[in-house]
Amino acid sequence: MYVNWLTRLSDILPRRQLLYSVHIDPHKRFVYFANPKVGSTTTLATLQALCLDEPSRLEWPYNDIHDREKSPLLSLKQLSATEVNEVMTDPDVFRFGFVRDPFHRLVSAYNDKILLNKKPKKTILKTLGHDPEDVEINISFELFIKAVTRQIVQEMDFHWIPQNIQLMPGRINYSYIGKMESFDKDFKYILDSIFKIPDWLHSIPQLVVLQDRYNVKLHELPPKTQASIWNKYYWDYEIFGYEAPKLPGGPSAPPQGTTALTSST
């Protein structure tokens, strides 16, 4: 059955974000759905290097790796509607993405985007009532969580948007969804499923943001902050099989007003 995928998916994920996040190689027949703060730089660098048979891609600067115009991987807008429908429905096309424990992903986003005063911090400052251009304002992790949990999807930067929205597992028929917690093993399986791995790729590169600026365990946070994270990211915990915060009484049901993208219709 023919489906207009850009229309079908952009009612969930903003169109600009959708076009940036989906990476396609119609020749190797795979689609990678990028999920920021979940090994996306490592994944993109490796895929680009393998598609071009160019080991030097593994050493490219971060911004070049994420520059769609410099990438050999195509976006949805570079394919015809018929071609998009094929890569989204053909069982021989390998469709994959990665997920991560929601709390650890938030910590990674905070370390990278908030503490380093990068552009996504502006949305947090605006939500908290600050001048969004004054990126030098100190924002604690708890204030970051307060802002994130206030934001609706359209306001959220995709480095902390819920993963069930970013990856849309109810709309996409995935071949495989790997986990950050077993990244090397899962990515090796994915690469083996797509490529004949060349001799020059001896190991998966580790292109990661250092996490030593702020480090905290979930149970060390105030119960109210833990509950806020669980409420906002309930469906990520539920759909992707991550352990929920150990709140008094224990979380057992979805928070009021939440929905999951579990329908494939």
Q: What's the arrangement of secondary structure elements?
A:
Elements: H1 5-10, H2 15-21, E1 22-25, E2 30-33, H3 40-52, H4 62-65, H5 81-89, E3 94-99, H6 102-114, H7 121-127, H8 141-150, H9 163-166, E4 176-179, H10 183-194, H11 223-232, H12 234-240
Parallel strand pairs: 2-3, 3-4
Antiparallel strand pairs: 1-2
Helix pairs in contact: 8-11
Number of strands: 4
The best one-word shape is: globular
Amount of helix: 25-40%
* Largest sheet entry: 4 strands, mixed
Give the rounded overall mean pLDDT: 89
Backbone CA Rg: 19 Å
The CA-CA distance between the termini, in Å, is: 12 Å
With strands numbered from the N-terminus, the spatial order across the biggest sheet is 1-2-3-4
Structural class: alpha/beta
Q: Which parts are unreliable, with pLDDT below 50 for 5 consecutive residues or more?
A: none
Give the ordered list of helices and strands.
HHEEHHHEHHHHEHHH
Question: How many separate helices?
Answer: 12
- Strand % is 5-15%
